Amino acid sequence: MATLNASTPGAVSYLWSTGAVTPGIDVTEPGDYSVVVTLASGCEVTENVLVQLGTGAFQPAEAVSWKVIPNPAGDVAWVECPDCRDEQLEVVVRNAQGSLLRVESGQNGRIRLELNTQPAGFYWLELWQGGRFLGTRKLAIAGH
User: Fold this and answer.
1) Taking the chain, what is the end-to-end CA distance rounded to the nearest angstrom?
2) Which residues contact 97 (CB under 8 A, 6 or more apart)?
3) CA pair distance 54, 63, nearest whole angstrom
4) Long-range pairs of 53-62 with CB within 8 A, sequence gap ≥ 24
5) What burial class does residue 16 get, using C-beta atoms within 10 Å of its C-beta: 0-12 exposed, 13-18 middle, 19+ buried?
6) Per-residue pLDDT tens digits for 4-13
7) Residues 40, 10, 100, 106: is their CA dihedral positive or negative?
8) How far apart (Å, rounded) are the C-alpha atoms in residues 37 and 25?
């Protein structure tokens, strides 16, 4: 079981993809979950979470160190993972709302991201290797 918590100061309502309307939910199945948080100002913020649940005995995941440079970025950014093995890496690029934009691949712990077609703003990067989720980072793209 995993607990997802979207509790946000100033929030007036929550709506999860499961239909729940509470600040947090418990999930027992892997999958994509999302929540729309409505603030007192009327603004809505959507957050997406990918839940992967293992089978068998619980074993903590190894912490993997990786970074995005430069950040904020201009036309190009690099994802660097010195802890990653020689297997192929994948970076999932999502917009600020969590929608999938593209997937980039690379080897030897480095992936080059061409950003000149992306508008300025905030993005989410997910790092994957061999079907294993290694984490997420924010990326700011400055004006071109």
Assistant:
1) 44
2) 46, 48
3) 16
4) 53/2, 53/28, 53/29
5) buried
6) 888 888 889 9
7) positive
8) 13
Question: Contact at 8 Å (CB) between 62 and 56?
Answer: no
**How far does CA 138 lie from the centroid of its chain?**
8
- How many residues are present in the chain? 144
For the full predicted model, state whether its pTM sits above 0.85. no
Query: What token pair was written down for 20?
Result: 């729940």
Both tokens assigned to 102? 């593209």
Pairing of strands 121-129, 132-141: antiparallel
pLDDT in tens, 26-84: 888 777 788 999 988 888 888 888 877 555 444 445 667 899 999 999 999 999 998 88
pLDDT of residue 62: 60
Tell me how far apart the alpha carbons of residues 6 and 1 are, in angstroms, rounded to a whole number.
Answer: 17
User: Which is nearest to 141 in space by CA: 121, 124, 126, 125?
Assistant: 121
